[in-house]
Amino acid sequence: MLTPASDLKPALPDKAPKLLEQVKRCIRDKHYSLRTEESYVYWIRWYIRFHQLRHPLEMGVDEVRAFLSYLANERQVSVSTHKQALCALLFLYKQVLGCDLPWLNDLHRPNRAPRLPSVLTEREVAAVLAQLDGVHGVIGRLLYGTGMRLMEGMMLRIKDVDFDRREIRIRFGKGGKDRVTMLPLALVAPLRRQIQHARTLYDADRAGRRSGVMLPDALERKYPRAGIEWGWFWVFPSDHESTDPRTGIVRRHHVFEGTVQRAIRRAGVAAGLAKRVTPHTLRHSFATHLLESGYDIRTVQELLGHADVSTTMIYLHVLNRGGRGVLSPIDRLA
User: Fold this and answer.
1) Closest listed residue to residue 283, CA positions, set 121, 144, 130
2) Cβ-based burial of 60 (10 A; exposed 0-12, middle 13-18, buried ≥19)
3) What pLDDT score was predicted for residue 11?
4) CATH 1.10.443.10 occupies which residues in the chain?
5) Which positions are catalytic?
6) Among the residues of the chain, which ranges form H helices?
7) Exposed (0-12), middle (13-18) or buried (19+): which is 170, by Cβ within 10 Å?
8) Which of 22, 248, 281, 291 is deepest in the core (most CB within 10 A)?
């Protein structure tokens, strides 16, 4: 006798999870990053509190527009922040609550005006790097020497640095993509010393039978011992353990990116620069200096990991002859 289809349904929990827990679970189902999870939860919580703790299903287009208007007018947030809040609310209604309502697609999406990146000269880069020492000095030189994003450098693993081939494999970059970049000759010796330091911490962790490092996606279940292997250890490990925000496991993480950001900002001030210097400024400078040296834009695009060459073309507007590379007529008079 066949079992009725209704009897094959899994048993539902006695109590449905809270809304924010549903949001987190949906985000993790889609393999979004921890930063995306934190920002979406932040905006959804603020949206609910703004409307006196009403459930989102009880609200609609008027409440969403009122919240976005409050952000734009009273809080005067930037266009990118405004778009981030809107994306969080769209995710809440479409993905978490399953509301495919026509008004969701009619909401105004603000467009951010294009901005030219801040770029340092080679002399300014040298002055900033001279103010960095220790692990921050190695990281700063790595970001400028390879064009990595900050988190790509922070999450670098031992096995991804190939000294023989003089290349670095960047895994799970922006958009989850992998790419290869060069290992500059000037960074070989500093990286070898940094890896020796990492080996000391790795040996101490193994002697203390501590938990292995975090692995991407489901690799920790597929290869349970991979987290304690030397190849998966961080190139820039933290000097202390911390609690994994998703699993609650106490383990050694990589160097906290906030300390690197502060160190590079302070280095810019100490170098006497009026420009605001961030880790991404070093990436912008890397791309611009390559183009100034005569490398073609497709090569620079590949090294930066840009999906579209139009993203890379913005660096053509910040080359060393001023606006759009045009020679002013007054310079010809001289």
Assistant:
1) 144
2) middle
3) 41
4) 124-274
5) 149, 174, 280, 283, 306, 315
6) 19-29, 34-50, 61-73, 79-91, 102-106, 122-130, 134-146, 150-154, 188-207, 219-222, 257-270, 279-292, 297-304, 309-312, 329-333
7) buried
8) 281
178 to 67, 170, 300: CA distances (angstroms): 38, 6, 16
Q: Which CATH superfamily is domain 124-274 in?
A: Intergrase catalytic core (1.10.443.10)
* Residue 303: Cβ within 10 Å count: 21
Give the span between the Cα atoms of 307 and 280, in whole angstroms. 18
210-229 residue pLDDT tens: 988 988 766 777 787 888 99
Instruction: Render pLDDT for 146-184 as a digit per residue (tens, 0 to 9).
Output: 999 999 999 999 999 999 999 999 987 776 788 889 899
Which alpha helices (DSSP H) does 208-256 contain, by range? Answer: 219-222
Look up tokens 């060393």; give the residue: 320
> Which residues is 252 bridged to in the sheet?
241
Q: How many CA atoms lie within 13 A of 189 on its CB side?
A: 1
Question: Going by CATH, does the domain composed of 16-106 fall within 1.10.150.130?
Answer: yes
Q: How far apart are the first and last CA of the chain?
A: 98
